[in-house]
Amino acid sequence: MNYDILIESANALLKDEPNNLSLLSNATAFINDHINDLNWVGFYLYNNGVLTLGPFQGKVACNKILPGKGVVGTSYVNNEVIVVKNVHEIENHIMCDANSMSEVVIPIRNGKEIYAIFDFDSPIENRFDDKLVQFLRQFAALIEKYIDFNAPLI
Ligand code: SME
């Protein structure tokens, strides 16, 4: 997988999209189309003390996650990327899709504040190697660059 080329295409896809809902939706579709062995990719958007399910690809998922709960809520509270090699080996994990084996969460930041947690699940243990995580971080940085944090979702 040539991640440099994928980042170029992602840049072309995201840079001219003025609508936040469209941008986030296409971002999830792009990842789902191009990265193998994922069973869920999507956003949990922070609003009024709750992380609420946003655009995603995959099975029906939990629609609200409180800060501190699960991998998503932990990423929010600690303001950090988390890579989970095997979700069955950690206690603070919320199982939305029973097929999920490994997971990565990446905060989308508006300056010092967290706008959303970008969540990726795989049915394969230890799917997220360093190169893939690096690519996903670059992809998340594109979203931070192009999203209009001052505009409503739609
Ligand atoms: N596994 C996440 C919950 C969201 S789903 O994976 C879509 C968590 O532990 O926070």
Describe the model:
With about 150 residues, the protein is an alpha+beta fold. It has a single domain, classed as GAF domain (Beta-Lactamase), CATH 3.30.450.40. The chain is built from four helices and six strands. It has a six-stranded antiparallel sheet, with helices on both faces. α1 runs antiparallel to α2. About 35% of the residues are buried. The mean pLDDT is about 95. It binds methionine sulfoxide (SME). The site of methionine sulfoxide has 14 residues, from α3 and β6.
Secondary structure elements and their pairing?
Blueprint: H1 3-15, H2 20-34, E1 40-47, E2 50-58, E3 64-65, H3 70-78, E4 82-84, E5 102-110, E6 113-122, H4 130-146
Antiparallel strand pairs: 1-2, 1-6, 2-3, 4-5, 5-6
